[in-house]
Amino acid sequence: MSQTTSQKRYTPAAITFIVAQVVLISTVVALPLIRSAKLQRETRLPEFHNAPREIRPTYNDPRVVTDDQLAMVLHKLRPQLRQEKPKINYVDHALRFWGADAEFKDQQCLSGQEMRQMLLDHRSFSSFWGDDAKSLVYSHPDEDRIAVRTQAGNATASH
After folding, report:
1. What whole-number distance in Å separates Cα of residue 116 and Cα of residue 102?
2. Rounded CA separation 77/100 (Å)
3. Do 155 and 85 touch, CB atoms closer than 8 A?
4. What distances in angstroms separate CA 67 from CA 60, 63, 143, one per listed residue?
5. What pLDDT, in 10s, does the model give residues 22-81?
6. In the chain, where are the structural domains located?
């Protein structure tokens, strides 16, 4: 009796080839999708914090640094910026380091509030830089936003 229907039987090599092709095509399709999702996650803006995070010490080991050594370094880092035309990047970084609540006994040092006022209030800024100084913070002419004058001399922010 002859068979009227012919059935194709795949050899193990053919099955292996077909499975390999399915895996390869799936990989080629999936990788760009995974990469695209990863890029979207990476370009998300960081969480906004109105106040800087406070970093507390995790240990107190005088073999690393003694209290006297730490006091000496902090003394050198005081914001002795009460002078005519202090560099704005010094004020900016001192404010970041010491915080807005910082107060100092040394009359040559600006308090945290004074540093913040210098950066945000043009009247305070001009009391150090003069009335002819361009404002550090200004309304951007092309966009509806506030901008900071950067990298245009000592009376501007460094970044």
Report:
1. 11
2. 15
3. yes
4. 9, 10, 50
5. 999 999 998 888 888 777 666 667 788 887 788 888 888 888 889 999 999 999 999 999
6. 77-148
